[in-house]
Design a protein that fits this description.
By secondary structure, the protein is α/β, with parallel strands linked by helices. Helices cover 33% and strands 23% of the residues. The chain contains eleven helices and 13 strands. A five-stranded mixed sheet has the order 1-7-6-4-5, with helices on both faces. Strands 8-13-12-11 form a four-stranded mixed sheet, with helices on both faces. Strands 2-3 form a two-stranded antiparallel ribbon. A hairpin with a 3-residue loop joins strand 12 and strand 13. The longest helix is centred in the C-terminal third of the chain and has 23 residues, at 220-242. The structure holds acetyl coenzyme *A. Acetyl coenzyme *A binds next to helix 2, helix 6, helix 8 and strand 12.
Length: 330
């Protein structure tokens, strides 16, 4: 009998309509299109409307993923939402998404692993499906990062954008599906990338607002070094676990933070540029959403073919990182 493996049976994404260009940012902070483009590769990003919260973006991506999988919202047993921009402190954003799409049979929770969030949530969803605890998992990564950016801080505000993506997981009688995964964290480096205010360490107060603690803080140069090293190592570990080499991989979808990071990963893995999926020129860094948005994009535009092997690799605040090898079987 063939072994059952967990597969991604549907994907969807949602990008807010409003485009914010580098030229517009030139008028907001002391920056230039030339600096942003050469240092990061970003040309423009999407910004959600004021009346849209993270769950609104996530719900739209979830509807599209369910339609792609040919399932109804009632078929979903669990919703796992990866986000660092939840609608509220609680309830969890997964519950808000559940209510919007009508997934009345699901239990719902959030996973917070910053830019690694989608891969962490995918790992949790895979485990729940693989053990038989649930039949259908809906993994959503949704971020309204514009809500936590300091629009006076040129070190961060030019880098990010809003987006959501979703994947539907079920077990199938196929050879592969999700083939291997590896995850890691290093909490000793937490202070290099954080949003300090509004939690139990620095509860919201007049002073925390005055000190701008409710915005993201990042030590970019340090994060850069760790991002490259950890994503290369995680990729090697996941490949070793899958029994594949980089030559077997058709597509590498790295977290979309910086084109220089993506190119460095490609070089150090010995992968040609033709394997690297890049869309950060259009969307910037959308935190947990980058990988699933890019996966959905190549699935829909025909680049991704049945039996292609795909390496997904992420790095984010925490620090957190992860890599997953998938054989596409749609
Ligand atoms: N426009 C113009 N100049 C700028 C800007 C800007 N928007 N931002 C910074 N600068 C200046 C700095 O002030 C600095 O000036 P100085 O030399 O006079 O001090 C100069 O540009 C160079 O700054 P660096 O920080 O050294 O620039 P670097 O080449 O490292 O690029 C960047 C910065 C883009 C942030 C890069 O370090 C990076 O991509 N880091 C990793 C980001 C990442 O991977 N994040 C992880 C995921 S995010 C998450 O988990 C939520």
């Amino acid at each position: 009998m063939k072994k059952k493996t967990v597969s991604i049976i549907g994907t969807g994404s949602y990008l807010p309509e409003r485009v914010l260009t580098n030229q517009e940012l030139e008028k907001m902070v002391d920056t230039s299109d030339e600096w942003i483009l050469t240092r990061t590769g970003i040309r423009e990003r999407r910004i959600a409307r004021e009346d849209q919260a993270t769950s609104d973006l996530g719900a739209e991506a979830a509807r599209r993923a369910l339609a792609d999988a040919g399932l109804k919202a009632e078929d979903v047993d669990v919703i796992i939402c990866a986000t660092i921009t939840p609608d509220m402190g609680f309830p969890n954003t997964g519950c808000f998404i559940q209510n919007q799409i009508g997934a009345s049979n699901a239990f719902c929770f959030d996973v917070e692993a910053a830019c690694s969030g989608f891969l962490y949530a995918l790992e949790v969803g895979r485990s729940l499906v693989e053990t038989g605890a649930v039949k259908t998992a809906l993994v959503v990564a949704a971020e309204k990062i514009s809500a936590i950016l300091d629009w006076q801080d040129r070190n961060t505000c030019v880098l990010f954008g809003d987006a959501a993506g979703a994947a539907v997981l079920q077990a199938r009688d196929v050879e592969h599906g999700i083939m291997a995964s590896t995850m890691g964290s290093d909490g000793s480096l937490a202070e290099l990338l954080m949003l300090p205010g509004g939690g139990s360490r620095y509860p919201a107060s007049e002073q925390t607002v005055k000190d701008r603690l409710h915005y993201m803080k990042m030590a970019g140069r340090e994060v850069f070094k760790h991002a490259v090293n950890n994503m290369v190592q995680a990729s090697k570990d996941a490949l070793a676990k899958s029994g594949l080499t980089i030559d077997d991989i058709r597509w590498i979808i790295p977290h979309q933070a910086n084109l220089r990071i993506i190119n460095a990963i490609g070089e150090r893995l010995g992968a040609g540029a033709d394997k690297l999926v890049v869309n950060l020129d259009k969307y910037g860094n959308t935190s947990a959403a980058t990988i699933i948005v890019a996966l959905d994009e190549i699935a829909r535009d025909g680049r991704l073919k049945k039996h292609d092997k795909v390496l997904l690799v992420a790095f984010g605040g925490g620090f957190t990182w992860g890599a997953v090898v998938v054989e596409w079987d749609k």
